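User: tokens in, sequence out, please.
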């Protein structure tokens, strides 16, 4: 059973991403953005009922100034990149933390479309290197002493993966605290 962890990780790592060339250079309506995200990121869903993003979520992020407000009814490529960044951050950071991060990006770094595109490309580059970084963790779990009870082994693996997730979550929060609090300049 635990040997399936390798394939499970490989399956997760094969999930699709929205690449820069997938984002049109023309403004899009919210429904078009949601359709693009649902189509391109479909295999990232845990179940069929899950929504990648919703109109309400995007409106709330916009009201909180996490995503730059729209002019009219369409979103620019820069705003679409911001939405994609929020999609990645929303499972790790609170709304307030995302607001702090994006405020710094707007105010101190004065990122425009090129800056958001550059950051997003760098994230994708890392994303496509995850296998070499994460496979040793899974291999370590598989090699550990096993019991005769598969459910016990699965529980231990689940606990270990949750521990790693928790530790990485703490590191992400520390980055927000160190680099994105009011009064901190970009280091």
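Assistant: Sequence out:
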């Amino acid at each position: 059973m635990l040997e399936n962890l390798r394939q499970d990780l490989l399956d997760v790592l094969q999930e699709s991403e929205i690449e820069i060339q997938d984002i049109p250079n023309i403004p899009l309506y919210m429904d078009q953005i949601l359709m693009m995200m649902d189509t391109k990121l479909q295999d990232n869903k845990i179940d069929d009922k899950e929504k990648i993003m919703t109109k309400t979520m995007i409106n709330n992020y916009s009201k909180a100034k996490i995503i730059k407000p729209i002019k009219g009814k369409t979103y620019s490529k820069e705003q679409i990149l911001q939405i994609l960044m929020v999609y990645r951050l929303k499972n790790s950071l609170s709304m307030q933390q995302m607001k702090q991060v994006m405020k710094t990006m707007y105010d101190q770094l004065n990122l425009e479309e090129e800056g958001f595109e550059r950051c997003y490309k760098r994230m994708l580059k890392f994303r496509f290197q995850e296998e070499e970084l994460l496979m040793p963790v899974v291999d370590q779990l598989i090699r550990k002493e096993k019991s005769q009870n598969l459910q016990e082994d699965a529980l231990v693996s689940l606990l270990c993966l949750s521990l790693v997730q928790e530790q990485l979550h703490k590191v992400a929060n520390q980055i927000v605290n160190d680099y994105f609090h009011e009064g901190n300049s970009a280091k």
